[in-house]
Amino acid sequence: MPGLQVVRNPLPAQVEPYRGVILHEPDLPILVAAVLAAVDYLVTHNRRHFIDDPRVAERSGLRIGSPGAALAWVRDQLTAGGP
Prior knowledge:
Radius of gyration: 13 Å
Largest sheet: 2 strands, parallel
Low-confidence stretches: none
Structural class: mainly alpha
Strand order of the largest sheet: 1-2
Distance between the termini: 8 Å
């Protein structure tokens, strides 16, 4: 299982193709950075814009959840032997 990853903000040209994936435009670079980094799980406290709208995960192809949900996912991965 890979470790924690911090990535740079994407360039405007990298963000453009993802317009409409998330309704709150200021959060789009965060989402795009996670997509481009091919993260296993995007952890956020931002329920309103990322978690409460299931279309964001569907459109981006990402697992998105709270820190608690992410810890539960990691625990499941460790007990199951991997992603």
